[in-house]
Every structure is written in structure tokens, then in C-alpha cells.
Amino acid sequence: MRASGKEGVATSGSGAAIKGLSKGERTRRTIVARAVGIVSEVGYEGLSIGSLAAVTKLSKSGLFAHFKSKEALQLAVMQEVIDRYVARVVQPGLAAPRGEGRLRVLFEKKLQWILGQQELRGCLLGKASLEYDNRHGHPVRQRLIQALEDWRELLVRATRGAIEARDFRADLDAEQFAYEFDGITMMYQQARGLLADRAAEQRAHTAFASLLERSRRSSRSRQH
């Protein structure tokens, strides 16, 4: 999953980066942050230049100076959400040592992301997945697919790293591991949010522990 900026890892929240921005770019970021709030309420398709103008108290012409179309505005919101995800989930995971430990960090950060997104009425990546499932050719759908493919690729690489580190067995299917990893977090999101299941976190950790146990090398294999 790539964020905007150099080498695909720059994030949108660092103070040093913001201080170096022009007034116009700072204004644009403030507008996008307000737009994220609107999307959390009415979805990506409910976002418009008009609704954003009402919230920001800016003129439509002023907003058009930053975003030439509704789709450009939607894409800016999508990129902001991706940047936040990279900063809060991906980067901490990549900072962890390669092996099972990195996957554990990615899992914990993903659960924290889902929990933190409750204030936005649910994960905005998940919301986009529902809105644009059948919107073939829409630029927001295309950007979302790229982000989700990047995330899945990251999980696969991290799993292969755990195999190479001899934490996981050599014949483990890394793509299947990544599939099940995502399945657990998706179920957690539904159970924690929609169903308000108090046992959601415990069940997610139990499921992930089972996935790890099935993926590890046997104690006998580790000795050789």
C-alpha cells in the first residue's frame, strides 16, 4: 500500500512536512480533512463541492481552484485515508523485525485502525469497497483496488519473510496466510462495529493465534 510522497511512504500528518508546505497546500489539506468527515457521514458518492462548501464556508469557485471535479475531490479523500493507513498500520509493521513478529505488529495495528475508525462511522476503506464494488472504471475504485493489492502484497511478503526467518514452515502458502489474515480482520470489523459484539477482539486474537500456530515450524524442525 503506497502513500503519497517520495518513495511511497510519506505521510500526511508530520509537523515538519506541514511546516514546509505552501499556504495553498495547507489550505488544501484542511479542506480534505473536512471532506473526510463528510464521507464518514454520507459516503464518497454523497460528497460534493457544494456540500463541502457549506461545511468549510468557502466558495465553490475557491474549492474548484483546488479540486477541478467531484472525482478529484473523492480521490483526494481516498488518498488521505490511504496515507493515514500507511502511517498507522504499515509503517509500524515495517519497523518491526522481519518474521512472525512483524505480522503480529501488522495485525495489532490493523485492529487498532479498525477501532479508531469507529469515530468515522467505520473504516473508510471498507466503506469505499462497498460503494465502488460494481463501479467499474471509476477512478476511486481503481485507486482503492491498487491500495488493497499493495496491502495484500505486503502481507504476502511479510509471510515469506517469516518463512525465510524459519518462524513458519517452509511449505506454508503465503498467499493463503494473507487471505486468512484479512478475513479475520474483516470479521472483527463487522463484529465490533455493526454487531457490537463485546467478544469481537478476543475472538479475533484467538483466530489469529490459531493461524500462527498452524503456520509455525514444528519444534523438531526448528532444532535442525
Written account of the structure:
By secondary structure, the chain is mainly α. The protein has a single domain, classed as Orthogonal Bundle (Tetracycline Repressor, domain 2), CATH 1.10.357.10. Helices cover 70% and strands 0% of the residues. It has helices at residues 15-19, 23-42, 49-56, 60-66, 70-95, 100-116, 124-131, 139-164, 174-193, 200-215, 219-222. It is elongated, with a radius of gyration of 20 Å. The model is unreliable at 5-16 (pLDDT under 50).
Characterize this entry briefly.
This protein has helices at 15-19, 23-42, 49-56, 60-66, 70-95, 100-116, 124-131, 139-164, 174-193, 200-215, 219-222. It is an all-alpha fold and 224 residues long.
Structural class category? mainly alpha
Order of helices and strands: HHHHHHHHHHH
CATH level 4 superfamily? Tetracycline Repressor, domain 2
Count of discrete alpha- or pi-helical segments spanning 4 or more residues: 11
C-alpha end-to-end distance: 36 Å
CATH class: Mainly Alpha
Mean pLDDT: 89
Query: Major beta sheet, specifics?
Result: none
The CATH architecture assignment turns out to be Orthogonal Bundle
Strand portion: under 5%
> Fraction of residues in helices?
over 70%
Q: Roughly how many Å is the radius of gyration?
A: 20 Å
